[in-house]
Amino acid sequence: MTCNSQTAESWHGKLNLVYADRQNTTQLIYNHHQAPLKVQRPFYPEGAKVCHSVILHTAGGVVGGDRLSLNFHLQPDAQALITTAAASKIYRSNSLQARQTIEIQVDAGACLEWLPQETILFNGAIYRQDLRVELATGANYLGWEITRFGRSARGEKFLQGEWRSHTEIWQQGVPLWIDRQWLLGNEEIFHSPHGLFGKPIVGSLVWVGNPVSVEIVEKTRNLWNGEGEAGVSQLQNGFLCRYRGYSTSEVRNWFTAVWQMLRVNFLSRGNCIPRVWQV
């Protein structure tokens, strides 16, 4: 009897985090994890109101057959910023799909800033991510996703494999934003203007929770001064930023500037860059 070695070595990691407001202090009141996922001890670089958490993937990378499940629940008035300790690496697959599922619930008066570092898809990776956010009335959510197709620094292109990214944001049974992206790794799509157009990095940032004025949308556009392609679309209760280009630092600088602007305008917060980004 034989078995696929990647199947035998695959991980089924889980992480379940619950945050609660306790006398104007956000506390991580429940933390259940299963390898290779875990979370560092919470810290408070901008005061007790906002809890910062850093997720670790101790295996170092994701292979075909891996299943990662993350569940975040912010109880009423909780305020949390969650990021990752390093870029996520999705290795070349031996025909098996790697999958990450993220379920997020944000209760009334709560706000989640979900700011993972970039995902790097090696040529030949087969990867799918499903992210679903349930927002209560009066809740806020800001999230971004930055994906690099191929290890472009060494000249690698994403010419084999598959990437799927499905994101849904709902509020009391009403869809606020549904986004489904699918990209096959091949030469034609890599260079097509309807695909990557030769640009190996794409990014999306979405803010949902408060109506955004035309002035805020224009200010967001004016924060862009890079060489790649960027766009901003107004949503019913927020807005969406898109990027396609060559530079992780370029998209991250723009997204960070937009995020900081939103913090000032809607959350009454100042600049506070997660320390793990500065390592």
Fill in the keyword field for this structure.
279 residues, mainly beta, 10-stranded mixed sheet, 7-stranded mixed sheet, 17 strands, disordered N terminus
Structural write-up:
The chain is mainly β and 279 residues long. It has helices at 5-8, 187-191, 214-222, 248-267; strands at residues 12-22, 25-34, 37-39, 50-57, 67-74, 79-84, 88-90, 98-106, 111-115, 119-121, 126-135, 140-149, 162-171, 174-184, 201-208, 229-235, 238-245. The strands form 2 sheets. Strands 3, 4, 6, 7, 9, 10, 12, 15, 16 and 17 form a 10-stranded mixed β-sheet that branches. A 7-stranded mixed β-sheet has the order 2-1-5-8-11-13-14, with no helix packed on it. Strand 1 (12-22) and strand 2 form a beta hairpin. The longest helix has 20 residues, at 248-267. The termini are far apart. Residues 1-8 have low confidence and may be disordered.
Low-confidence stretches: 1-8
Radius of gyration: 19 Å
Count of beta strands: 17
Shape: globular
Helices, by number, come to 4
Cα-to-Cα separation, first versus last residue: 47 Å
Helix/strand order: HEEEEEEEEEEEEEEHEHEEH
Class derived from helix and strand content: mainly beta
**Main beta-sheet strand count, sense and barrel state:** 10 strands, mixed
In helices, the fraction of residues equals 10-25%
Secondary structure: elements and pairs:
Layout: H1 5-8, E1 12-22, E2 25-34, E3 37-39, E4 50-57, E5 67-74, E6 79-84, E7 88-90, E8 98-106, E9 111-115, E10 119-121, E11 126-135, E12 140-149, E13 162-171, E14 174-184, H2 187-191, E15 201-208, H3 214-222, E16 229-235, E17 238-245, H4 248-267
Parallel strand pairs: 1-5, 4-6, 5-8, 6-9, 7-10, 8-11, 9-12, 10-12, 11-13
Antiparallel strand pairs: 1-2, 3-4, 12-15, 13-14, 15-17, 16-17
